[in-house]
Q: What sequence folds into this?
């Protein structure tokens, strides 16, 4: 959205400037640089190697490194708790992709974003964690003890 705003401002600046030849050249160079930056950002963000897979009828199951996450709509987290970008997960045919983020203060939940919509996913009890232990026998940290 900010890119469109800058381009509109540059076009207005071209229209009202007195030295039209030099201003047009500078503004066209600026618009080209902005567009290349936007395209590169989009390519690197969307074409990275997937870290997991989405499954389920409602795309409500995500598998990342052997850990299974299910959509959890009854939790205390929101988009404001989104933390670091972890990567993307895709369907088996790679038609749909979600951007996956960690959730502040816990390793039990992840936040998945597709287009403008997002949801919180919870690690299931039978999932194998990164540390190799199983579900409820994992060591629970301070942030997870109340959940």
A:
């Amino acid at each position: 959205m900010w890119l469109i705003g800058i381009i509109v401002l540059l076009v207005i600046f071209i229209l009202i400037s007195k030295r039209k030849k030099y201003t047009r050249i500078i503004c066209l160079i600026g618009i080209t640089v902005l567009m290349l930056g936007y395209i590169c950002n989009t390519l690197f963000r969307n074409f990275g190697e997937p870290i997991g897979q989405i499954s389920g009828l409602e795309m409500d199951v995500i598998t990342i490194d052997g850990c299974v996450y299910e959509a959890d709509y009854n939790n205390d987290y929101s988009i404001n708790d989104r933390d670091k970008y972890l990567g993307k997960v895709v369907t088996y045919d790679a038609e749909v992709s979600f951007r996956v983020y960690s959730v502040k203060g816990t390793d039990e939940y992840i936040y998945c974003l597709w287009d403008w919509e997002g949801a919180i996913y919870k690690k299931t009890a039978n999932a194998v964690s990164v540390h190799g232990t199983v579900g409820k026998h994992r060591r629970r940290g301070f942030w997870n003890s109340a959940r």
In short: The chain is about 30% helix and 30% strand. The beta strands are 52-55, 61-64, 67-71, 82-90, 97-103, 106-114, 117-123. The longest strand covers residues 82-90.
